[in-house]
Design brief:
- Two copies of one chain form a homodimer.
- By secondary structure, chain A is α+β, with helices and mostly antiparallel strands.
- Chain A is 50% helix and 18% strand.
- Chain A has four helices and four strands; from the N terminus they run ββαααββα.
- In chain A, a hairpin with a 7-residue loop joins strand 3 and strand 4 (89-92).
- The longest helix of chain A has 29 residues, at 94-122.
- The interface between A and B is large, with 44 and 45 residues.
- Strand 1 (15-25) of chain A pairs antiparallel with strand 1 of chain B.
Amino acid sequence: MSTNINHILKTTGSYKIAGTLWVEYIGERCFGPGRMELLQLIDKTGSINKAAKEMGMSYKKALGMITALNLQMNQTLVITQTGGESGGGSSLSDAAFALMKYHVDLRLRFQTFLKSETKLLLKSQL
Amino acid sequence: MSTNINHILKTTGSYKIAGTLWVEYIGERCFGPGRMELLQLIDKTGSINKAAKEMGMSYKKALGMITALNLQMNQTLVITQTGGESGGGSSLSDAAFALMKYHVDLRLRFQTFLKSETKLLLKSQL
C-alpha cells in the first residue's frame, strides 16, 4: 500500500528517500558506516592511529570502537602487533574482510530499496 | 548476492539489521522520524509549544523545523492561529495528514526490508 503525496511536493527541485543502516547486537549498534570506514582506513594505513586521524577522531575513540566490535563478534577483527622489527601496526583479519564484504552487499540492496522508494514517491511527477 | 558472515557472529545474544529513513529535498533532510513525531504531537496537543516541550526541545527549534518543512513542500503543513477567542493554537492541514500517512506506510515497507535482511543475516544460525 502506498499513499500518494505527489500533490504536496514542489515541482521544482528534487526529492529522494535516503537513510542509513547498521547491524545491532543485543540492542546496540555494532556495525554501521562509521565502523566500516574505520576498518577500511586501518586496512589502507596499517595503523589505528592514522585511521583515526583520517576520520578526525581520537585514537582512544577509534580503539574503543574496535574493542567494542571485537567483543560483539565471535572473532577478532583487528589484529594489533606491538613492537617488532616493523614497529607494530594493525591489520584486518579474514573475518573483518568478510564483514566488510557483507556490508557492501547490504548497502547495495539498501540502495535498491531506496531507489525503488524514491521512484514510488515521485511516481505521478514523472 | 549475499556474503554469509554467520561464522563471525556469536551464538549467544541477538543480531538484527536496523536503520532509519528520511525524505530529502535538494540534498537536505526534510522529513524523517523527528518531524514526524513533531507533527503527531502538534496534532495531539494543538500547540507547537506543548509539542516542543514533550520532545524536550525549544519552541524556537520546533518552529524552525516547521518553517523549513513548510518551505520544502508545496503546501502549508501546520496552520497557526494567533489570538482569537480560543487564544490561538496550531493544527495540521490535510497535506500534513497525507504526509504522515505516507510516512507510516514507508516505515512499514522499511520494516519489511529490515526483517528480511535480519533473516538473511541469521540464515544459517536458524
